[in-house]
Amino acid sequence: MILTLDVGNTQILGGLFNKDELILQFRKTTKQSFSSDEIGLFLKSVLRENDFDPMLIEDVAICSVVPDRNHSLVSGIRKYFNLTPFLLEAGVKTGFKIKYKNPHEVGSDRIANAVAATKLHPHQNIIIVDFGTATTFCVISKSCEYLGGVIIPGIRISMEGLENQTAKLPRVEIKSIDLSYGKTTTESIQIGLYHGQIGMIKEITNNITIEAFQGVKPVIIGTGGFSSLFTNSGLFDIVDQNLVLLGLFETLKMNRGETS
pTM for this structure? Predict the structure, then answer.
């Protein structure tokens, strides 16, 4: 079995693969740093609590956008699993030609998403929208070129900005909402957060389609923690919250050889 870990700014998303099937997903908040013992014990306990034997883990793949946590992660996995994990970082095999001016600037989670998307939709132009701490766009050509991307404030950051920078606006539940305007402060904020993201995504994906793909509609994929809010929004051809985990798994296979 293969363990995959996507380390973000606010949480770790974990996945367990048996052969090519994702059989377990879990999340851990990461607002504070952690020791190698804490992460090692957490990973072992979450596997055991879900009736999986940690001793059956054959390999571990990690993508991380929080470099100062990598040492604890790697040390914890070495100590508690007796494995040296694979880190998706600059220089590893991905199958992509990165067209960024500085390819090292592209986050490893975005590369993992791109690998998974082209695995699922080969020979197609693709836009991936990832709803994480930031909302990010990845632009991928059908010839496996990573053309570039867009980064905008995520829906939670937008809410926290309103809460922290105003005297009277409260924290609200982030939810999909069909109203076009609100009759309470809470409704008004919820509508602004939800439809504000939709408006930005429509405008950005339309401009990318014209500029990168000469107006020919690409496959548009939603992923990330908040993507489920937009399942019925009409924005996406597919919504897949596990894209990054599949991309990690596929990248591990490319770099280690076929792994079951």
Answer: 0.89
